Amino acid sequence: MVTIEIDGKSYQAQAGQKLIEVTEANGIDVPRFCYHKKLSIAASCRMCLVEVERAPKPMPACATPIMDGMKVFTRSTKALAAQKAVMEFLLINHPLDCPICDQGGECELQDIAVGYGNDTSNYQEAKRVVISKNLGPLIATEMTRCIHCTRCVRFSKEITGVPEMGDPGRGEHMKIGTYVEKNITSELSGNMIDICPVGALTSKPFRFSARAWEMQQHNTIAPHDSVGSNIAVHTRRNKVLRVVPRENEAINEVWISDRDRFSYEGLTANDRITSPMIKKDGTWKKVHWDTALAYAVDNLKQIDSKSVGALASPTATVEELFLLQKLMRGIGSNNIDHRLRQVDFSDQDQAPLFPYLGQAITDLENCEAALLIGSHLRKEQPILNHRLRKAGAKVAVFNPIDYEFNFPVAAKMVVAPNNWVSNLTGIAKALLGNGLIPTGMQKLLADSEVTEEQQAIAEALQTGEKRTVLLGNLATSHPQFATVRALAATIAKLSGARLGYLPEANNTTGAWLAGAVPHRKAGGEAVVEAGLDAYAMLSQNLKAYVLLGLEPELDSCTGSASCLEAADFVVSLTAYKTEAIENYADVILPISLFTETSGTYVNAEGLWQSFGGVVNPTGSTRPAWKVLRVLGNLFDIAEFDYVSSEQVRDEVQALVGDKKPSNTAGWQVPTCLENMASDGLQRITEMPIYSGDALVRRAEALQDTLDADVAGIHVNPTVAKQFNGSEQVQVNGASLPLVLDERVPDGCALIYAGQIAGTWHGNVEVS
Amino acid sequence: MNAIKNLFKSLFLLELIKGLRVTGRYLFDRKITVQYPDEKTPQSFRFRGRHAQRRYPNGEERCIACKLCEATCPAAAITIEVEQRDDGSRQTSRYEIDLTKCIFCGYCEESCPVDAIVETRVFEYCGENSNDLLMTKSDLLAFGDELEQQLNVDKLLDSPYR
Q: Count of alpha carbons within 13 Å of B118, Cβ hemisphere only?
C-alpha cells in the first residue's frame, strides 16, 4: 500500500495502480476518452492530464503509475488549462451534428465539453471529413465524428480476439475502420457501440428511434445463453427500443453478446400473435381467453393423461416450467421435457441435479488447462468463451467440425461423430494411472490404443493446477451422449479437472430444477415411473401435446413436427403464429415474451436471477405463468392458486433447498465402449448462433449477419467430388446448395439446423 | 384633530372628486382602445403566435428530428417520431403540436438548432373540435409555406440579437 495525495487529501492505494484507477475508486472526476477499465492503456486522447508535483508537464492520469508520497492536483490552474486545451484540439475535427447524432444526450464528448471545454475555438479552418464504412447490419458508422480514442481497435484486438478494427494512417489521415471494408464478424461486436465515447459507432437497428433522455431504463436478464447476462432494456411509450449491458463482474463483466443485445427486434415481429385462437373445421378464428382455455381443457380432458405430452422451451422461466410440470403431473402424466436436442437419455437417472458448469463463471478465467468436448464455444456462449480466452489457458478441443477459435488451441481433434467414443477412450487411456476411477471403467479402457493426437490432448490437459473439461451442445446432442459423458467424466477424474456442462439455453438449468424433465420432480426428487423424454414424445405418436414457447420443427433434433400433425389435439402456448403452428395446433394461447412478464432464470453456475416485466403485454397476450395457472385451476388441480410469480419461485426454491449439483457423481460406467456404425454420409448438425430460439430467429438485423448465413450442405472438397461439381444437392428430398467447407471431416456433412426436415443425426441421403 | 379632518373630507366629498378627476382626465385623453378586428395593435417580430414549420429555399424541410423542442416543451405539447428516410437522412415521421396544451412560451423556437419550428404572428385561429387544434406535420409545413416571406423578414430582424 502507498499513500498519495490528490487535491490536498490523502488516499491509500495499491502500489502499481494507475492514477486514474485511484481517482475512480475515490470518486474524483478526471475526464477521459481513451481510458476504459477493461482495455489496455493507450493514453492517446490526453484528456486526463493532471498536474503532478515536481513533474515538469501535466501527466496523463491513465498512464501514470502512482508512487508513494505523490502529490496530484486534478483541478489546479495548470491541469485545467491542459484539459481545456486538449478539449479544444479534440473539437477541431468533430462535427457539430449533435442534433442528428444518436449519441446526443449520452455522449462522453458532449458531457466533457460542457464540463471542461471552452465556449469558443481558435480554429477557423476546414474540418476533416471521413467517409463512413459499412461494418455490417449491426453497427452504423459516422466516422467524421471519430476522435481516435482507439477504444474499438483495442476492443477488437483484446476482447473479441479478432483484430478486425484498425487505425491505418497517421495524424489527420488516421482512419479507424476495418482495413478492407467488410462486415464485423465478432459475436461481441455490439459492445463497440457502448465503448465508443462519441457517435462514430452507433447501433444500426436502433438508428434514430429515440433520444437518450426520453427512454426509461429497466433492469432484466438476457434470455439466450446460459450465462444470464445482466441487461438493461430501454423503453419508450411501452416499446422496447434497445438493450444495453449492465455491469456485473461475476457474470458478464461489462459486455454482452450480440445475440442478447439485438434479439429485442423479435419482440415486435410481424408474426407475433396477440389474441387467442382456436381451430374449428380447419379454419382459425379469434376467440376470447375464456373460450380458448375452456376449449383446450375440455379437449385435453377427453384424452387419456398418459398420452398427453408437454414440451417446453428451455428459454421459458422457472415459474412457467414449474407450473407446466405441475399441471402435467396434476393430470397424471410425467411426459414433460425441455431437452429437445438430446437423443440419448439412457443415464438420465444418474445426471446431476442440473447441468452445472462445475465452477463459477469467474473460475473459468483462472483455469490453466481446458478440454472442450463438442462445443463451438465462441458462438454458443460468447461470454464464457471470453472468460476462457482471458484465462490464457492451454485449451484442447475435441469437435466434429474444425471450428475457428479466437484463442490459441494447444491441441485439437476433429472427429466424425461416429468415432467419438473410441477417440475419447484413447484420451482417457493416455491419462490412465493419474487418478482413481471405477474398476469397470479401468477394464474398459485397458485394451484401447492411444494415438499421437490423443496423447497431445491428454498432455495439454495436464498443464497447471486448475483444469476443466467442458461438455458443449454438440456433445449433449450426440447420439451416444451417455457414453460421451462417462468418458468425459473419466477424463476429468483422471486429469484432476472439473467437469462442466455448457447448458444450451438460458434456463436449461432452471428447467431441471423446476422439474421439467420426465424422471424428476421439482427440486430433483425422482418420480416413481418416469415419463417419456422429448425425443420419444416427438417420435412416438401421442394423442395430445402441450407446447410452451416452442417450434419443434426448428427447435428439436427430430427436425420435424409430423407427430404433432398426427396428434388429435395440440395446445400451443406461443408468442408467434407460423404456418407450421397453424398446421398442427388446435388452440393457440398467445403468451408474453421475456420483457412483458416477470420470472426467474437460473444460469450455468446455478445462480437464480429474477426479473420483472418491463413493458405491458402486447395485445391480449398474457404471461405464460398466468395462463398455466388458469389451466391448472380449470383442471381443478390442488394448490394451484398462485397470485404472483414470486410465490411460484419461492415454492420452487423451497423444493430445491440447499441442494448442490455434483458433476463427479453424475455418470455411470457404460457397458461397452463401441463406436456407432456408419456407412455413407453422416450428418453433423449445429444450431446456428442466431437460430437458437423463437425470439432470436425473428431478430432481423441478426439474421442479416454473416453468422446467420448458413444455408446449404457443407462438405469438404474430397467429399464434394462425389457430387461431380453440381451446385445443388438433394438432401432427404430437399434441395440445398453445396458449400465447400474445409472444416468438415471426411465422411460427414454439416447441415445447420432448421433447413431440412428430418433428424439431426445418422446418415443423410444425398443425390 | 384627525376626526375633524375626516369629517370635512366626507362632508365635501373630496374623495369622490379626486376619483372623478381621474375619470375626467381619461374622458378627454387620447383613446387607446383598438377597434378589433377592424384595427390591430402593432406586433413585435418576436411575437409568439401559432406555430409553423419552415423549409429551406430548395423545398427541403428544415426539421432534423433532434427532438430538442419536444424535450424542452414545459407543457409536453409536442410529439415527435423519427424515421430514417431512404437517402439515410433523419426526418420526422410524425410531428404534432397540441395547441390546446401549448402555453406559447417560445422555448421550442429557441431550442431549435435549424430554425425549423417557429412561432408566427398569427394569433387568430380557432377550432370547433379539440382535434382541430392538433397541428400535424403537414399543417405546420403548409402554414410555414404560406408565411415564409414574413418569417424570413422577422428572422432577419431578430438575427442581431441571437
A: 28
Determine whether the interchain pair B113/A99 forms a contact, defined as Cβ–Cβ distance below 8 Å.
yes
CA distance B129 to A709: 54
Summarize pLDDT for A325-351 with one digit per residue, the tens: 999 999 999 999 999 999 999 989 889
From chain B, the residues in CB contact with A209 under 8 A are 82
Q: Hey, what's the cell of A369? A: 488447462
DSSP tag of A348: G
Question: Chain B residues with CB inside 8 Å of A100's CB?
Answer: 64-66, 90
Residues 6+ apart with CB under 8 A from A27: none
Task: State how beta strands A587-590 and A277-280 pair.
Answer: antiparallel
Positive or negative, the Cα torsion across A9, A15, A18, A23? Answer: negative
**Do the Cβ atoms of B65 and A208 come within 8 Å?**
yes
Delimit the domains of chain B by residue range.
51-158
Q: Is B160 exposed, middle or buried (CB count within 10 Å of its CB: 0-12, 13-18, 19+)?
A: exposed
> What is the helix (H) or strand (E) element at residue A2, kind and residue range?
strand A2-6
* Contact predicate A479/A435, CB 8 Å: no
Task: Name the residue with higher pLDDT: A677 or A740.
Answer: A740
Q: Is the dihedral of CA A732, A738, A739, A744 positive or negative?
A: positive
- Output the pTM of the full model: 0.92
A678 confidence band (pLDDT: 50, 70, 90): confident
Cα–Cα distance, A204 to A160 (Å, whole number): 20
Chain A residue at shortest CA distance from B83:
A208
Q: Does domain B51-158 have CATH number 3.30.470.20?
A: no
| CA atoms of A15 and A485, how far apart (whole Å) | 47
To the nearest whole Å, the CA of A141 is away from the closest chain B CA by 12
Residue A701 DSSP SS3: helix
Query: What's the gap in Å between the CA of A418 and the closest CA on chain B?
Result: 52
Tell me whether strands A139-141 and A201-203 are parallel, antiparallel or unpaired. Answer: antiparallel
Share of residues in chain A with pLDDT > 90 (%): 79
CA distance B120 to B146: 11
Whether omega for the bond prior to residue A137 falls within 30 degrees of 0, making it cis, is: no
Residue written as grid cell 494411472: A433
Widest distance between CA atoms in chain A? 89
* Cβ neighbours of A207 in B, within 8 Å: 84
Length of chain B, in residues: 162
Give CA–CA dist A492/A500, Å, rounded: 9
C-beta atoms of A211 and B67 within 8 A: yes
Contact at 8 Å (CB) between A512 and A353? yes
pLDDT in tens, A21-41: 999 999 999 999 999 999 999
Q: How far apart are CA A758 and CA A561, in angstroms?
A: 9
